[in-house]
Specification:
358 residues, alpha/beta, Arginase, Chain A, binds zinc ion
Length: 358
């Protein structure tokens, strides 16, 4: 285990991140960031000597134009001026959405810069993780894809092997489209079965193309999967792949919406699993990536489990003394779940491992 009390953490934070407005009935409503801020205050995370608040910069126009088409950027700008129109059916527009999206996505890139400059070892971008946004379109509550922007920032700085470890319960379909042919990016996405779950993408067979073949790894889980099957899949797949790839930088999306209390989806993890994932990924960062690790939080729509998840990840990285209450998911993994997960893991291994001589 890495001694996390010695790691320096940058926490991307500014009241400007609260200028989000999908409306009161939307899962991401105004107040979500205030809730996180109150929680962070309450547990004393920002008082730790090894934690530094970093002010987010706007996403640069250069990076914005790299990750999105001119037409799409113009559409967001127009909605932003008038407050009229939607980004997508599930993603309403609002006045000032262009500024808000540039600051929330810029926060993650600011995190990358603060790690690369040596200011901190790890960053946490508590409003980041817009993995459904694609070059020509937003959707799934995502406007500008900050993960893609982070990767391009790293590429601009000469980094050749970026690992995106995405445990959000929804497949990282937007991010996948940017780097599908690119061996400089390995994307591993664990998510609920796309057969019924948004964004209906992220099948095992989608392993990348051309020189990127094998660098896109999708591991879907059946409904009601809990800690035990998830940990099995994690242990079987992630350590060998990370060891083979030797990433220079790890971007980690923890997946608070895979928690059993989060009913936007149907996985039944507890924060025990979130702690296990976070500490393993943290150890990998120190083993392979000179500690270079960025956390972009992604989904999480149940207030309690979102805070528990964030507190758990922060405690792993910083040594913060935080432990959520004991949790009892409604189901244990049954025989059927085990069978499907073992089957999926075997399929992923058959397709991916030979490419890396594993
Ligand atoms: Zn560390
Ligand atoms: Zn999600």
């Amino acid at each position: 285990m890495t001694n996390s009390g010695q790691c320096r953490i940058g926490f991307l934070w500014s009241p400007l991140l609260e200028t989000f407005d999908f409306g009161r009935k939307h899962p991401i409503r105004v107040g979500r960031f205030k809730l996180l801020r109150d929680f962070v205050d309450e547990v004393g995370f920002l008082d730790l000597p090894n934690v530094e608040v970093i002010t987010p910069e706007l996403l640069s126009e250069d990076l914005l134009k790299t990750i999105h088409s001119e037409e799409y950027i113009a559409k967001v700008q127009q909605i932003s001026e008038t407050g009229i129109g939607d980004i997508d059916i599930d993603t309403p527009g609002f006045r000032n959405i262009y500024f808000n999206s540039r600051i929330v996505s810029g926060a993650s890139v600011t995190g990358i810069k603060s790690v690369q400059s040596g200011l901190v070892d790890h960053f946490v971008s508590p409003t980041g993780g817009f993995h459904h946004a694609k070059f020509g379109a937003g959707g799934g509550f995502c406007i500008f894809n900050d993960i893609a922007a982070c990767v391009y920032e790293l590429k601009n700085q000469g980094i050749k092997r970026v690992l995106i470890a995405d445990f959000d319960v929804h497949h990282g379909n937007g991010t996948q489209t940017y780097f599908y042919n690119d061996p400089e990016v390995m994307q591993i996405s664990f998510h609920e079965d796309p057969e019924w779950m948004f964004p209906h993408d992220g099948y095992i067979q989608d392993i990348g193309e051309g020189s990127g073949r094998g660098y896109n790894i999708n591991m879907p889980f059946p409904m009601d999967s809990g800690d035990a099957v998830y940990r099995y899949a994690f242990d079987e797949l992630i350590p060998p792949l990370v060891d083979s790839y030797q990433p220079e930088f790890i971007i980690f999306i923890p997946g608070f919406d895979a928690h059993y209390k989060d009913r936007l989806a149907h996985l039944t993890l507890t924060t025990d699993m979130i702690r296990y994932i976070a500490s393993t990924i943290h150890d990998f960062a120190h083993e392979y990536s000179s500690g270079k690790l960025g956390v972009v939080t992604g989904g999480g729509y149940h207030h309690e489990s979102l805070c528990w998840g964030l507190g758990t990840v922060m405690s792993v990285l910083s040594g913060l003394d935080f432990e959520p209450p004991p949790q009892q998911p409604p189901f244990d993994d049954n025989e059927e779940t085990w069978e499907e997960v073992k089957n999926n893991v075997a399929l992923v291994k058959d397709l991916i491992f030979p490419i890396f001589n594993l």
